[in-house]
Amino acid sequence: MTSFAVPTTKRSYSTAWWGMAALIATESMVFTVLLGGYFFLRASALQWPPGGIAGPELRLSLPFSFLLWGSSIPIFYAEAAIRRGSQRGLRIGLFVSAVMGAGFLAFTLEDFHDVTFGWRDNAYGSMFYVIVGLHALHVFAGLGMNVLVEIKAWQGKFRADCYTSVEVLSLYWHFVDAVWIFVFLSLFVSETWR
Amino acid sequence: MAIIDQAPDAPDAATLERIEHRWLDAPGIPGFFTTVDHKRIGVRYIYTSFVFFFLAGLAALVMRDQLASSNNNVLAPETYNALFTLHGTTMIFLFNTPVLAGFGNYLVPLQIGSRDMAFPRLNAFSYWVFLFAGLLLYSSVVVGHPPDGGWFAYVPLTDKAYSPAINIDFWGLAIIFVGISTTAGAINFIVTIFKMRAPGMTFNRMPVFVWSMLVFSFMVIFAVPAVTIAAALLEFDRLFGTAFYTPGAGGSALLYQHLFWFWGHPEVYILFVPATGMVSMMVAVFSRRVLAGYVWIVTSLVSVGFISFGVWVHHMFATGLPALALAFFAGVSLLITIPSGVQFFAWIATMWKGTVELTVPMLFTVGFLLIFLLGGITGVMVSILPFDWAVTDSYFVVAHLHYVLNGAVVFPIFGALYYWLPKMTGRMLSERLGKVSFWVMFVGFNLTFFPMHILGIIGMPRRVWTYSNGLGWDTLNLIVSLGSVLFGLGTGITLLNWAISLRRGRPAPANPWDADSLEWAVASPPPEYNFAQIPVVSSRHPLWDDDGAPAAVPVLADAAEGRDPSVRSLALEGAADKTTTITSGRDTRPFEVLEIPEQTVVPFVLALGLAAFFAGLLIEATVVGVLGVAIAVAALLRWVWRTDMDRA
Amino acid sequence: MNILHAHGSEAERLAGIWWLMFGLGAGVYAIVAGFIVWAIVRNRTAASDGPSDNTWIVWGGVVVPVVILGVLAVVTVQATSELRRPEANALHVEVVGKRWWWAVSYPGTGFVTANEVHLPAGRPVEIGLDSDNVIHSFWVPELAGKLDLIPGQHNVLRFTPRKPGRYIGECAEFCGLEHARMGFEVIVENATDFDRWLARKRNPPSAPESESALEGETVFQRQSCAGCHTVRGTAAQGTVGPDLTDIGERSTIGARTVANTPANLEAWISDAQYFKPGALMPPIELSNRDLRNLAAYLETLK
């Protein structure tokens, strides 16, 4: 005999959130496969990067990486804000995160402009552009989502007990930041330390 | 709140009809493009997949005509190479995978006691992407440039240097495109199975087919990215001149093989797992007893899901990789036999203690057992690394792969047709025609594929458009070709049976097979809303009480008076409001209401926009590509903007 | 081309493994299929008779498979560690996969041929496998298992041929249009015959003597043949197509597409596409007389 008491007020994530979680699982695999391919080529190569290309620099990429990772903090803040009912805190947190993310994106474009190799030159160039570029595409999509949620926030669509879009954006954004940890360590740091 | 475990007074017909009307799609063309109903979408998947099945089968028959005798000239080499490419690509991507997703789409909500999937619009989107990806691939035939690099499309053969024409691009872009469909479907299944099971249907009570769709979906999530990347990097090399696979520029031809097979091996289990899920359901019902070793079987399914990711290099045994690495993969490949063996003997145990009834679905199931047994044995043989050096890339492997991908997947699918089509269409298929179809298929199958083992042993390689006389291959090839005609005929008989049954089949009752799972608790075909009242489940076999006799399904009698909206959605009110219940993952307590979206053309438009994007890449027309992206973004915005996740 | 007609060290080992697996496989199939059929047809007296569910599953699904697979795992590890090992006094041959033929050379001798590999019986060989285009696979079933030719990767196939004879080989990796017409032959001779053959091959072919052949040589030099083909000791040093230095001695044309007869040679030269559509050799327009002489010349190249 089963019996069901009225469900407690303990919240559980919505189906949309779980859908995003599943999407993140598969996207993580995309980056895992690409980074696996990168290391595979590196291990099989006689010279890496080939053609005597200098590895990527850390002077700019390091601080801007921290800018991106830091952009998760305003998102935490925004979620906490709406959870206690602060519409203003939500809007500010979203906005600050978007600015930081946009800054990182600008750096990426500048980086592509600065590097001395093209994506057609050799497999290293191809991998670098595609991996960093794919990540940048994800950042761009995240910024788009941020704008959407910001607009909804201004329209007052969120309440302290109901803010699904914010949760979904937050999950996605943290994922984008986490991916950059692995990409940065693989493509930037590990090349500099070889 | 107390539970009554008998069905309360059934709601009257007028009420039900009113509720049905609320759920009905618009008729005709508008309804066709806007439906989000999982049953309509599931059936559509099945029909579309079978069209591709017959196209790919036809390709095979033409190939066998060419190979029926040595030095034959029925086909030019380029035609033959295109045919075997299309045959393999279609069977894997456009038949086997989507047809299983289609059965899953139809059955999973019904078997877990839900009124639809977690994401009905995403469901519609997955179907349209599948259709458009298939059309993209076959448009290559229409313009006379079908892909001809094999279904596996190894580089450097498929690089621009050796395949300069557009043929391979059709393949690469179609593969990337269809992956979106498969992945979206997998996400949908995972969330649905986790969050929408009826109260009381804990994981321990879930039907084995639902378990198999869960394992299928997790495998898809982790495997499909590899083939997407394999094809994407190939297309980057071809369209933009990158160097991923160029040996002279730091790239590697072997990288492609690793990427492709990292997906490729799990893929065959992605197909095999739902097929065995279907077998488990049918074996139990037609042995008139519960499935033996439920926990063993579920554990096997999950283990296969994991282990299958560790064997991919066994497709690369002849590439000259270091022996130690190869030996590891050989060992794991031997290991993966165990879970399959466990399932096999669970089925035997089920039949042993039961009373076997040889209905048509059961005939196909038994056929599956006899065929898969041989396929599994030859699988063990090719796992033995040095022996694989002898027979890989020969007809021995062609025999093995068809025993497992045709016999062990297609036979259950045909059994499933006879078993579940009555539920879907409300019409039984002819038993007599079904039996004829089975026997013709079974004999034809073995005539076609058994001799291939011998052909491989006497030295015939794969993927050859012709062969010399005097090698001793002629007679066997002739037998194979004749067998293939027989097999094709057998499948055609089922097609005929299917068509006839739609008009003249005996009307199907709710539970024609006296089966045990929840889909048999509703009418055939089910009402639009599936369950007027969502059942409460207290065993693995809800329709069989302790005596094994079919019982009415219990419902939560006072759900309608529950204070929480999620409890109320279990009741008739839930159906009337076009909602279904979201339950918590572990203990299946109702905790939220899912409002089923109204029908909408947005998923179709989004899929169309993506199709335009891929077409633009294919023909290198930037305008088309940009337009496609614009349409897709607009559709996506429209989709998420109005999503009623956040209440105003 | 039967892998069970084993005439090389590796093929012998693999044939042995086959018979072990075949025995086990046939036995397993007969027994398990028997269970299936019996389960269907038997009359049940009581629901509890016969092995319990768990007995079936544990013994049939776990215990017995683990034992059988254990045996096979041992066989696998043993065979893998013993096969394809480097050996002393191995003969080196280099094979490069082309579209759609095989370039064969013997390092240190200056001898280059195509589509035929001569090997000594009883002596270990090391066949280097490379490709400068797509992936191919070197498979001579009666001597050894196969190994791929992958651009950018140097593979080595090692085994010992045992019995003298002519063995057919095939390309076993789909390599494009005429993958089906990329055969080759391995000719195994006893040690003395082989040494004599190799010694002879160190020298370029002797000059043609008959009038027809001499005229043929002129045709060869005058036409575009030298642009693609090499004949050692002459001005023809092209590397696109097969080396023709010993074409007169080879048994087939076009990698086992047709038998090497003067008539076939003439037909091949005038239109290779007729025999092997897609082959990279273009049709060559010549008068009948020129063709005949050219073929006569080529047949003298041994």
Features:
heterotrimer; A: 194 residues; mainly alpha; 6 helices; C: 302 residues; alpha+beta; Immunoglobulin-like; five-stranded mixed beta sheet; 19% strand
Can you tell me about this structure?
The complex is a heterotrimer of chains A (194), B (648) and C (302). Helix content of chain A is 73%, strand content 0%. Chain A is built from 6 helices and no strands. In chain A, helix 5 (123-154) runs antiparallel to helix 6 (164-192). With 648 residues, chain B is mainly α. Chain B contains 20 helices and 2 strands. Chain B has a two-stranded antiparallel sheet with strand order 1-2. Chain B is globular. Chain C has 2 domains: 1-42 and 84-203, Immunoglobulin-like (Sandwich); 211-299, Cupredoxins -  blue copper proteins (Immunoglobulin-like, Sandwich), CATH 2.60.40.420. Chain C has a 5-stranded mixed sheet, with no helix packed on it. Classes of the chains: A mainly alpha (194), B mainly alpha (648), C alpha+beta (302). Chains in contact: A-B, B-C. Chains B and C meet through helix 4, helix 10, helix 11, helix 12 and helix 13 of B and helix 1, helix 2 and strand 9 of C.
Poorly predicted ranges of chain C: none
Q: pLDDT average of chain C, as an integer?
A: 94
For the largest beta-sheet of chain C, the strand count, sense and barrel status come to: 5 strands, mixed
Pair of chains with the largest interface and how many residues each contributes: B-C, 80 and 83 residues
Quaternary state reads: heterotrimer
- Overall geometry of chain A comes to elongated
Question: How are strands sequenced across the largest beta sheet of chain C?
Answer: 3-2-1-5-8
Task: Please outline the helices and strands.
The complex is a heterotrimer of chains A (194), B (648) and C (302).
Chain A: H1 15-44, H2 61-70, H3 72-83, H4 87-114, H5 123-154, H6 164-192
Helix pairs in contact in A: 1-5, 1-6, 2-4, 2-6, 3-4, 3-6, 4-5, 5-6
Chain B: H1 13-23, H2 28-34, H3 38-67, H4 77-112, H5 120-142, H6 167-195, H7 208-240, H8 253-285, H9 294-307, H10 323-335, H11 337-353, H12 360-383, H13 385-391, H14 395-425, H15 431-457, H16 474-504, H17 565-568, H18 572-576, E1 579-583, E2 590-595, H19 602-618, H20 622-641
Antiparallel strand pairs in B: 1-2
Helix pairs in contact in B: 3-4, 3-5, 3-16, 4-6, 4-8, 4-14, 5-6, 5-19, 6-7, 6-19, 7-8, 7-9, 8-11, 8-14, 9-11, 12-14, 12-15, 14-15, 15-16, 19-20
Chain C: H1 9-41, H2 53-82, E1 91-97, E2 102-106, E3 111-114, E4 116-120, E5 125-131, E6 136-139, E7 147-149, E8 155-159, E9 165-171, E10 184-189, H3 191-201, H4 211-222, H5 225-228, E11 252-253, E12 258-259, H6 262-270, H7 272-275, H8 288-300
Parallel strand pairs in C: 1-5, 4-10
Antiparallel strand pairs in C: 1-2, 2-3, 5-8, 6-7, 6-9, 9-10, 11-12
Helix pairs in contact in C: 1-2, 4-8, 6-8
